[in-house]
Amino acid sequence: MPLFDPTALNDGVKKREVFGWALYDFANSGYTTVVLTAVFNSYFVGVVAGRADWATLAWTLALGLSSALVMLVMPALGAYADLRAAKKRLLAVSTVACVGGTAALALAGPGDLLLAFVAIVLSNFFYAVGESLAAAFLPELARREALGKVSGWGWSFGYFGGMLSLGLCLGYVLWAQLQGRPATEFVPVTMLITAAVYGTASLGTFALLKERATPQAPATNARADGVSASLQRLHATLRDARRYRDFSWLLASGTAYQAGIAVVITLAAVYAEQVLGFEQTQTMALIFLVNIAAALGAFGFGYWQDRSGHKRALGVTLLGWMVMTVLAFLAETATLFWFAAVLAGLCMGSSQSAGRALAGLLAPPSRRAEFYGLWAFATRLAAILGPMTYGVVTWATAGNHRLAILSTGVFFVAGWLLLRPIDVQRGALEAGQMERAT
To answer: Considering the entire predicted model, what is its pTM?
Structure first.
Protein backbone atom coordinates (compact mmCIF):
# COMPACT_ATOMS: atom_id res chain seq x y z
CA MET A 1 0.00 0.00 0.00
CA PRO A 2 1.49 3.40 -0.94
CA LEU A 3 2.16 5.89 1.83
CA PHE A 4 -0.34 8.34 0.34
CA ASP A 5 -3.18 5.98 -0.54
CA PRO A 6 -5.79 7.68 -2.78
CA THR A 7 -8.44 5.20 -1.60
CA ALA A 8 -8.28 6.91 1.81
CA LEU A 9 -10.07 9.93 0.33
CA ASN A 10 -13.78 10.51 -0.19
CA ASP A 11 -15.19 10.43 -3.70
CA GLY A 12 -14.30 13.53 -5.68
CA VAL A 13 -11.48 14.61 -3.34
CA LYS A 14 -8.19 15.24 -5.15
CA LYS A 15 -4.74 14.76 -3.64
CA ARG A 16 -3.96 18.42 -4.19
CA GLU A 17 -6.92 19.38 -2.01
CA VAL A 18 -5.61 17.23 0.85
CA PHE A 19 -2.22 18.83 0.29
CA GLY A 20 -3.85 22.26 0.57
CA TRP A 21 -5.56 21.22 3.79
CA ALA A 22 -2.29 19.84 5.22
CA LEU A 23 -0.57 23.09 4.24
CA TYR A 24 -2.54 24.82 6.97
CA ASP A 25 -0.97 22.53 9.56
CA PHE A 26 2.36 23.37 7.92
CA ALA A 27 1.60 27.10 8.11
CA ASN A 28 0.34 27.44 11.67
CA SER A 29 2.81 25.05 13.35
CA GLY A 30 5.44 27.77 13.34
CA TYR A 31 3.27 29.76 15.73
CA THR A 32 3.19 27.06 18.40
CA THR A 33 6.80 26.02 17.80
CA VAL A 34 8.45 29.45 17.87
CA VAL A 35 6.05 31.64 19.83
CA LEU A 36 4.61 29.28 22.44
CA THR A 37 7.31 26.60 22.76
CA ALA A 38 10.83 27.67 21.84
CA VAL A 39 11.36 31.44 21.85
CA PHE A 40 8.77 33.94 23.01
CA ASN A 41 7.66 32.11 26.17
CA SER A 42 11.14 32.24 27.71
CA TYR A 43 11.64 35.77 26.32
CA PHE A 44 8.40 36.87 27.98
CA VAL A 45 9.47 35.41 31.34
CA GLY A 46 13.12 36.46 31.21
CA VAL A 47 13.07 39.78 29.35
CA VAL A 48 9.61 41.31 29.11
CA ALA A 49 8.71 40.43 32.72
CA GLY A 50 12.30 40.65 33.95
CA ARG A 51 12.36 37.19 35.63
CA ALA A 52 9.95 38.38 38.33
CA ASP A 53 8.52 35.76 40.70
CA TRP A 54 5.15 36.18 38.99
CA ALA A 55 6.55 36.05 35.43
CA THR A 56 5.66 32.41 34.69
CA LEU A 57 2.21 32.92 36.19
CA ALA A 58 1.70 36.02 34.01
CA TRP A 59 2.57 33.99 30.92
CA THR A 60 0.12 31.26 31.83
CA LEU A 61 -2.56 33.87 32.60
CA ALA A 62 -2.21 35.29 29.08
CA LEU A 63 -2.62 31.83 27.58
CA GLY A 64 -5.50 31.08 29.94
CA LEU A 65 -7.38 34.24 28.98
CA SER A 66 -7.04 33.53 25.27
CA SER A 67 -8.28 29.99 25.82
CA ALA A 68 -11.25 31.25 27.82
CA LEU A 69 -12.22 33.46 24.89
CA VAL A 70 -12.07 30.45 22.57
CA MET A 71 -14.30 28.50 24.95
CA LEU A 72 -16.88 31.28 24.88
CA VAL A 73 -16.84 31.83 21.12
CA MET A 74 -15.79 28.67 19.26
CA PRO A 75 -18.76 26.31 19.81
CA ALA A 76 -21.25 28.89 18.53
CA LEU A 77 -18.87 29.96 15.79
CA GLY A 78 -18.58 26.33 14.69
CA ALA A 79 -22.36 26.00 14.56
CA TYR A 80 -22.51 29.20 12.50
CA ALA A 81 -19.83 27.84 10.12
CA ASP A 82 -21.90 24.70 9.55
CA LEU A 83 -25.16 26.52 8.95
CA ARG A 84 -23.69 29.18 6.66
CA ALA A 85 -21.02 26.94 5.01
CA ALA A 86 -18.51 29.55 6.17
CA LYS A 87 -15.56 27.47 7.38
CA LYS A 88 -13.19 28.72 4.70
CA ARG A 89 -14.19 32.38 5.03
CA LEU A 90 -13.83 32.33 8.80
CA LEU A 91 -10.52 30.48 8.47
CA ALA A 92 -9.21 33.31 6.29
CA VAL A 93 -10.22 35.94 8.86
CA SER A 94 -8.65 34.06 11.77
CA THR A 95 -5.44 33.51 9.78
CA VAL A 96 -4.98 37.19 8.97
CA ALA A 97 -5.64 38.10 12.60
CA CYS A 98 -3.18 35.53 13.99
CA VAL A 99 -0.45 36.56 11.54
CA GLY A 100 -0.98 40.20 12.52
CA GLY A 101 -0.89 39.38 16.23
CA THR A 102 2.31 37.39 15.80
CA ALA A 103 3.97 40.29 13.98
CA ALA A 104 2.86 42.62 16.80
CA LEU A 105 4.94 40.58 19.25
CA ALA A 106 8.02 42.03 17.54
CA LEU A 107 7.21 45.34 19.23
CA ALA A 108 7.52 43.92 22.76
CA GLY A 109 10.70 44.69 24.70
CA PRO A 110 11.77 44.89 28.35
CA GLY A 111 8.88 46.13 30.48
CA ASP A 112 6.32 46.09 27.62
CA LEU A 113 4.16 43.70 29.60
CA LEU A 114 0.75 45.02 28.50
CA LEU A 115 1.67 45.00 24.81
CA ALA A 116 3.07 41.47 24.97
CA PHE A 117 0.14 40.24 27.05
CA VAL A 118 -2.50 41.60 24.65
CA ALA A 119 -0.66 40.39 21.54
CA ILE A 120 -0.33 36.86 22.98
CA VAL A 121 -4.00 36.76 23.99
CA LEU A 122 -5.21 37.82 20.54
CA SER A 123 -2.76 35.80 18.45
CA ASN A 124 -3.33 32.63 20.47
CA PHE A 125 -7.11 33.11 20.31
CA PHE A 126 -7.14 33.40 16.52
CA TYR A 127 -4.65 30.53 16.20
CA ALA A 128 -7.05 28.26 18.11
CA VAL A 129 -10.03 29.39 16.03
CA GLY A 130 -8.15 28.63 12.83
CA GLU A 131 -6.99 25.26 14.09
CA SER A 132 -10.55 24.22 14.93
CA LEU A 133 -11.98 25.38 11.60
CA ALA A 134 -9.24 23.59 9.65
CA ALA A 135 -9.84 20.37 11.59
CA ALA A 136 -13.52 20.44 10.60
CA PHE A 137 -12.52 19.85 6.96
CA LEU A 138 -10.96 16.45 7.81
CA PRO A 139 -14.14 14.28 7.63
CA GLU A 140 -15.03 15.95 4.33
CA LEU A 141 -11.72 14.80 2.84
CA ALA A 142 -11.08 11.35 4.35
CA ARG A 143 -13.14 8.18 4.52
CA ARG A 144 -14.20 7.19 8.02
CA GLU A 145 -11.88 4.18 8.04
CA ALA A 146 -8.92 6.39 7.07
CA LEU A 147 -9.38 9.40 9.34
CA GLY A 148 -6.34 8.40 11.41
CA LYS A 149 -3.87 8.23 8.56
CA VAL A 150 -5.11 11.39 6.83
CA SER A 151 -5.05 13.28 10.12
CA GLY A 152 -1.53 11.96 10.59
CA TRP A 153 -0.52 13.28 7.16
CA GLY A 154 -1.57 16.76 8.23
CA TRP A 155 0.03 16.67 11.66
CA SER A 156 3.33 15.25 10.39
CA PHE A 157 3.52 17.77 7.54
CA GLY A 158 2.67 20.46 10.06
CA TYR A 159 5.70 19.66 12.18
CA PHE A 160 7.92 20.18 9.16
CA GLY A 161 6.39 23.64 8.90
CA GLY A 162 7.29 24.21 12.53
CA MET A 163 10.83 23.06 11.79
CA LEU A 164 11.07 25.41 8.83
CA SER A 165 10.07 28.41 10.94
CA LEU A 166 12.29 27.32 13.81
CA GLY A 167 15.22 26.56 11.50
CA LEU A 168 15.03 29.99 9.89
CA CYS A 169 14.81 31.59 13.32
CA LEU A 170 17.67 29.51 14.72
CA GLY A 171 19.88 30.45 11.78
CA TYR A 172 19.15 34.13 12.33
CA VAL A 173 19.69 33.88 16.11
CA LEU A 174 23.09 32.20 15.66
CA TRP A 175 24.12 34.90 13.19
CA ALA A 176 22.87 37.67 15.49
CA GLN A 177 24.72 36.23 18.48
CA LEU A 178 27.94 36.10 16.47
CA GLN A 179 27.40 39.79 15.78
CA GLY A 180 27.06 40.39 19.52
CA ARG A 181 23.39 41.41 19.32
CA PRO A 182 21.18 40.95 22.40
CA ALA A 183 17.91 39.02 22.61
CA THR A 184 15.98 42.30 22.54
CA GLU A 185 17.14 42.68 18.93
CA PHE A 186 16.99 39.14 17.53
CA VAL A 187 13.83 37.80 19.21
CA PRO A 188 11.57 40.43 17.57
CA VAL A 189 12.94 39.41 14.15
CA THR A 190 12.02 35.77 14.86
CA MET A 191 8.43 36.87 15.40
CA LEU A 192 8.39 38.53 11.96
CA ILE A 193 9.92 35.41 10.37
CA THR A 194 7.23 33.24 11.97
CA ALA A 195 4.42 35.56 10.84
CA ALA A 196 5.80 35.60 7.29
CA VAL A 197 5.98 31.79 7.02
CA TYR A 198 2.47 31.44 8.47
CA GLY A 199 0.93 33.93 6.09
CA THR A 200 2.78 32.74 2.99
CA ALA A 201 2.18 29.01 3.47
CA SER A 202 -1.51 29.48 4.25
CA LEU A 203 -2.07 30.97 0.80
CA GLY A 204 -1.78 27.45 -0.62
CA THR A 205 -4.61 26.33 1.64
CA PHE A 206 -6.99 28.97 0.37
CA ALA A 207 -6.01 28.27 -3.23
CA LEU A 208 -6.52 24.49 -3.08
CA LEU A 209 -9.03 23.68 -0.32
CA LYS A 210 -12.72 23.71 -1.21
CA GLU A 211 -15.73 24.57 0.96
CA ARG A 212 -17.77 21.43 0.28
CA ALA A 213 -20.58 22.21 2.73
CA THR A 214 -23.76 23.96 1.59
CA PRO A 215 -25.64 26.63 3.58
CA GLN A 216 -28.36 25.26 5.84
CA ALA A 217 -29.72 28.54 7.23
CA PRO A 218 -32.22 30.82 5.42
CA ALA A 219 -30.65 33.09 2.84
CA THR A 220 -32.69 36.15 3.86
CA ASN A 221 -31.46 38.37 6.68
CA ALA A 222 -28.34 36.19 6.66
CA ARG A 223 -26.41 37.63 9.53
CA ALA A 224 -29.26 37.70 12.05
CA ASP A 225 -30.76 34.39 10.97
CA GLY A 226 -27.37 32.66 10.86
CA VAL A 227 -26.28 33.74 14.34
CA SER A 228 -29.69 33.03 15.89
CA ALA A 229 -29.95 29.63 14.25
CA SER A 230 -26.37 28.81 15.26
CA LEU A 231 -27.02 29.55 18.92
CA GLN A 232 -30.29 27.57 18.86
CA ARG A 233 -28.55 24.62 17.30
CA LEU A 234 -25.68 24.75 19.79
CA HIS A 235 -28.17 24.89 22.66
CA ALA A 236 -29.93 21.80 21.29
CA THR A 237 -26.63 19.93 21.03
CA LEU A 238 -25.65 20.76 24.61
CA ARG A 239 -29.14 19.83 25.81
CA ASP A 240 -28.95 16.47 24.04
CA ALA A 241 -25.32 15.83 25.03
CA ARG A 242 -26.35 12.67 26.90
CA ARG A 243 -27.25 11.16 23.53
CA TYR A 244 -23.64 11.72 22.43
CA ARG A 245 -22.22 9.91 25.45
CA ASP A 246 -19.06 8.66 23.75
CA PHE A 247 -18.27 12.06 22.33
CA SER A 248 -18.86 13.50 25.81
CA TRP A 249 -16.37 11.02 27.29
CA LEU A 250 -13.91 12.02 24.57
CA LEU A 251 -14.32 15.67 25.51
CA ALA A 252 -13.61 14.83 29.15
CA SER A 253 -10.58 12.72 28.28
CA GLY A 254 -9.31 15.32 25.83
CA THR A 255 -9.62 18.09 28.39
CA ALA A 256 -7.45 16.09 30.78
CA TYR A 257 -4.65 14.88 28.53
CA GLN A 258 -4.55 18.05 26.42
CA ALA A 259 -3.93 19.96 29.67
CA GLY A 260 -0.71 18.03 30.04
CA ILE A 261 0.23 18.57 26.39
CA ALA A 262 -0.42 22.30 26.79
CA VAL A 263 2.16 22.40 29.58
CA VAL A 264 4.78 20.74 27.38
CA ILE A 265 4.06 23.05 24.43
CA THR A 266 4.06 26.30 26.36
CA LEU A 267 6.53 25.66 29.19
CA ALA A 268 9.13 23.13 28.00
CA ALA A 269 11.59 25.89 27.11
CA VAL A 270 11.00 27.63 30.44
CA TYR A 271 11.64 24.34 32.26
CA ALA A 272 14.83 23.64 30.28
CA GLU A 273 16.23 27.10 30.97
CA GLN A 274 15.15 27.44 34.60
CA VAL A 275 16.01 23.89 35.77
CA LEU A 276 18.82 22.70 33.49
CA GLY A 277 20.32 26.03 32.49
CA PHE A 278 19.76 25.71 28.73
CA GLU A 279 20.82 28.63 26.55
CA GLN A 280 18.47 30.01 23.88
CA THR A 281 20.20 28.13 21.06
CA GLN A 282 20.15 24.86 23.04
CA THR A 283 16.45 25.26 23.66
CA MET A 284 15.74 25.90 20.00
CA ALA A 285 17.80 22.85 18.99
CA LEU A 286 15.86 20.77 21.55
CA ILE A 287 12.51 21.88 20.15
CA PHE A 288 13.77 21.18 16.62
CA LEU A 289 14.47 17.58 17.64
CA VAL A 290 11.07 17.32 19.32
CA ASN A 291 9.41 18.39 16.06
CA ILE A 292 11.27 15.71 14.11
CA ALA A 293 10.08 13.07 16.58
CA ALA A 294 6.54 14.47 16.51
CA ALA A 295 6.42 14.38 12.69
CA LEU A 296 7.53 10.75 12.64
CA GLY A 297 5.10 9.88 15.43
CA ALA A 298 2.10 11.54 13.77
CA PHE A 299 2.76 10.01 10.35
CA GLY A 300 3.52 6.44 11.38
CA PHE A 301 1.00 6.38 14.21
CA GLY A 302 -1.85 7.40 11.89
CA TYR A 303 -1.53 4.16 9.93
CA TRP A 304 -1.29 2.05 13.08
CA GLN A 305 -4.26 3.89 14.58
CA ASP A 306 -6.57 2.92 11.71
CA ARG A 307 -5.52 -0.73 12.03
CA SER A 308 -5.46 -1.14 15.82
CA GLY A 309 -8.36 1.14 16.73
CA HIS A 310 -8.50 4.80 17.71
CA LYS A 311 -9.17 4.26 21.39
CA ARG A 312 -6.44 1.70 21.95
CA ALA A 313 -3.87 3.73 20.05
CA LEU A 314 -4.64 6.93 21.96
CA GLY A 315 -4.39 5.03 25.25
CA VAL A 316 -0.89 3.82 24.37
CA THR A 317 0.30 7.37 23.73
CA LEU A 318 -1.07 8.51 27.10
CA LEU A 319 1.00 5.84 28.82
CA GLY A 320 4.01 7.24 26.96
CA TRP A 321 3.19 10.71 28.26
CA MET A 322 3.16 9.41 31.84
CA VAL A 323 6.65 7.96 31.40
CA MET A 324 7.85 11.24 29.89
CA THR A 325 6.79 13.35 32.88
CA VAL A 326 8.63 11.03 35.28
CA LEU A 327 11.79 11.20 33.17
CA ALA A 328 11.64 15.00 33.00
CA PHE A 329 11.18 15.17 36.78
CA LEU A 330 14.19 12.89 37.38
CA ALA A 331 16.48 14.56 34.83
CA GLU A 332 19.58 16.00 36.47
CA THR A 333 21.55 16.18 33.23
CA ALA A 334 20.75 17.36 29.75
CA THR A 335 21.07 13.81 28.34
CA LEU A 336 18.08 12.36 30.20
CA PHE A 337 16.03 15.48 29.48
CA TRP A 338 16.78 15.18 25.75
CA PHE A 339 15.56 11.58 25.88
CA ALA A 340 12.37 12.70 27.63
CA ALA A 341 11.92 15.41 24.99
CA VAL A 342 12.15 12.90 22.13
CA LEU A 343 9.56 10.71 23.84
CA ALA A 344 7.36 13.79 24.26
CA GLY A 345 7.65 14.51 20.55
CA LEU A 346 6.61 10.99 19.56
CA CYS A 347 3.64 11.13 21.91
CA MET A 348 2.67 14.67 20.97
CA GLY A 349 2.29 14.04 17.26
CA SER A 350 0.42 10.79 17.73
CA SER A 351 -1.94 11.84 20.53
CA GLN A 352 -3.00 15.10 18.90
CA SER A 353 -3.57 13.40 15.55
CA ALA A 354 -5.55 10.62 17.24
CA GLY A 355 -7.80 13.04 19.13
CA ARG A 356 -8.62 14.99 15.98
CA ALA A 357 -9.46 11.81 14.04
CA LEU A 358 -11.58 10.36 16.86
CA ALA A 359 -13.57 13.59 17.16
CA GLY A 360 -14.34 13.43 13.44
CA LEU A 361 -15.46 9.81 13.73
CA LEU A 362 -17.95 10.63 16.51
CA ALA A 363 -19.36 13.83 14.93
CA PRO A 364 -22.60 13.86 12.87
CA PRO A 365 -21.66 14.75 9.27
CA SER A 366 -23.76 17.93 9.07
CA ARG A 367 -22.41 19.24 12.39
CA ARG A 368 -18.69 18.75 11.99
CA ALA A 369 -17.61 22.35 12.54
CA GLU A 370 -19.96 22.56 15.53
CA PHE A 371 -18.54 19.39 17.09
CA TYR A 372 -15.00 20.46 16.37
CA GLY A 373 -15.97 23.71 18.05
CA LEU A 374 -16.88 21.66 21.13
CA TRP A 375 -13.55 19.83 20.78
CA ALA A 376 -11.86 23.25 20.66
CA PHE A 377 -13.79 24.16 23.84
CA ALA A 378 -12.28 21.11 25.55
CA THR A 379 -8.74 21.72 24.32
CA ARG A 380 -8.88 25.40 25.26
CA LEU A 381 -10.16 24.51 28.73
CA ALA A 382 -7.16 22.19 28.88
CA ALA A 383 -4.90 25.04 27.80
CA ILE A 384 -6.12 26.93 30.87
CA LEU A 385 -5.96 24.08 33.37
CA GLY A 386 -2.53 22.74 32.42
CA PRO A 387 -0.33 25.85 32.22
CA MET A 388 -2.24 27.58 35.03
CA THR A 389 -1.67 24.58 37.31
CA TYR A 390 2.01 24.65 36.40
CA GLY A 391 2.19 28.39 37.03
CA VAL A 392 0.40 28.17 40.38
CA VAL A 393 2.65 25.31 41.53
CA THR A 394 5.81 27.26 40.69
CA TRP A 395 4.43 30.37 42.38
CA ALA A 396 3.34 28.47 45.52
CA THR A 397 6.64 26.57 45.82
CA ALA A 398 9.01 29.48 45.20
CA GLY A 399 9.84 28.36 41.67
CA ASN A 400 9.94 24.56 42.01
CA HIS A 401 9.65 23.60 38.35
CA ARG A 402 10.40 19.93 39.04
CA LEU A 403 7.33 19.55 41.21
CA ALA A 404 5.31 21.46 38.62
CA ILE A 405 6.29 19.10 35.78
CA LEU A 406 5.58 16.07 37.95
CA SER A 407 2.10 17.38 38.72
CA THR A 408 1.50 17.47 34.96
CA GLY A 409 1.51 13.65 34.93
CA VAL A 410 -1.80 13.66 36.80
CA PHE A 411 -3.51 15.07 33.69
CA PHE A 412 -2.31 12.17 31.55
CA VAL A 413 -3.46 9.62 34.13
CA ALA A 414 -6.89 11.26 34.24
CA GLY A 415 -7.08 11.33 30.44
CA TRP A 416 -6.30 7.61 30.25
CA LEU A 417 -8.97 6.76 32.85
CA LEU A 418 -11.61 8.91 31.13
CA LEU A 419 -10.83 7.29 27.79
CA ARG A 420 -11.77 3.82 29.02
CA PRO A 421 -15.63 4.19 28.90
CA ILE A 422 -15.60 5.20 25.21
CA ASP A 423 -17.13 2.73 22.75
CA VAL A 424 -16.09 3.98 19.32
CA GLN A 425 -18.51 1.81 17.32
CA ARG A 426 -21.43 2.81 19.52
CA GLY A 427 -20.49 6.50 19.28
CA ALA A 428 -20.21 6.41 15.48
CA LEU A 429 -23.58 4.63 15.25
CA GLU A 430 -25.24 7.20 17.53
CA ALA A 431 -23.81 10.05 15.45
CA GLY A 432 -25.33 8.47 12.32
CA GLN A 433 -28.69 7.95 14.00
CA MET A 434 -28.81 11.56 15.19
CA GLU A 435 -27.92 12.70 11.68
CA ARG A 436 -30.88 10.80 10.18
CA ALA A 437 -33.22 12.09 12.91
CA THR A 438 -32.52 15.77 12.17
So the answer is: 0.77
